[in-house]
Each structure stands twice: as structure tokens, then as C-alpha cells.
Batch of 2 targets.
Target 1
Amino acid sequence: MSKADRYSKMATRTANQAREAAASAKDRQKYQRTIQGMNIESHRHCVICWAPIPIKSEPAVCANNDCVESQTKKESSRKRLTIMMYLFPGIAILLLMIQLAGASG
Ligand SMILES: [Zn+2]
């Protein structure tokens, strides 16, 4: 396969992906317009599958087991990230202080 062939294939694939993304965005817009037209009471959406759920649902997932599971996973990884964000600078400062104390003492 020539280089030009490969590039043109790559370009086609990217264009297809863009088209797909645009199509789904359009679908979502259509959906938004539809629910605006129907006077639906305020609600929120499942963060995984986007299904409408009661506004007070916490966490914001539907009753689907897959959604609950993946949301739990996301939540725990987010928590871990938050902990690390505080922990690592904390350790760095601690080490720095130990070194400073060692140098002066
Ligand atoms: Zn869901």
C-alpha cells in the first residue's frame, strides 16, 4: 500500500467518525426539542445511558445495574484521584520539610 493510499484511508475514517459524532449531536438536539415541546416535569438524566430519571435521584443513574456499576466505579476512581491530588503534594512538602530540618539541625 502506498503512503498516499494510507493517508486517504485515514482521512476517510476520520471523516466518518466526524459524521457519526455530528449525527448523534443532532439526535440529541432533536430529543431536547421534543421534550421541550412536551411539558415534562423537571427531571435529570442517567449520566451513563442518558435515560430520564427523577430529579432527586442521587447518584444520577437509572435503575439499570450496568449504569449503577459503572457509576460506582467512576465515583471511586474520582475519589482516588482527589485523594492523590492532596496526598502527593502533601508528601512532597513533608519530604522538603524533613530535608530542611535535617540541613539546619
Ligand atoms: Zn442508565
Target 2
Amino acid sequence: MAKCELCELREYTQRYAQFVHPFKFTILDCDSCDTPMVVLGEHRANATDQERSIMIEALSVIARAKYGEDKFVIDGVMRQIPDHCHIHARPIIRWQG
Ligand SMILES: [Zn+2]
Ligand SMILES: [Zn+2]
């Protein structure tokens, strides 16, 4: 069975939530971006639409608490590990004034 660093999910970043039902996924800070991300509990590239919407919903709760309403974007692009589904919530940086 294929393994990657998203399967292992090392313990040194902030963890927010670990879901087991209706399927397994974890929300934690990405150690390279330092932003919250949701990681599917299985090693596969694509989540179903239903899985994706549940993960985004849960990630948005965390991101709203951390950054504020409408202060983040959901980023589903998998740059570093394209074969294990994960989604980032990235803060929107606005110029002040
Ligand atoms: Zn994996
Ligand atoms: Zn990242």
C-alpha cells in the first residue's frame, strides 16, 4: 500500500480535529504552509463530491475561527503531494488603508 507524509501525519503541528464518521479525515496545520488543511484519511487523489463538501465545511469552521469570516480562501490545488487528497484554507492578505 502506498504511503506518503499525509498518510503518516506527524504530530508536531497544531491539530484541530480528527473525524472518524462518516469517513476519516484530519484537520491540522500544514507544516510547509503553516495554514490549516484537511487531509483525507485514505491515500487517494480524489474525494467524492460529498466527501469534499464535508471536508470543506469542517475546514471552513476552523478557518473562520482562525482568520475571520470571508478572510480565507479554500485552496484545493495539491502542489506537493498530488496523489493524496488534501485541501488548504489560506488567509487573504489585504492591503491596509
Ligand atoms: Zn498518502
Ligand atoms: Zn501546505
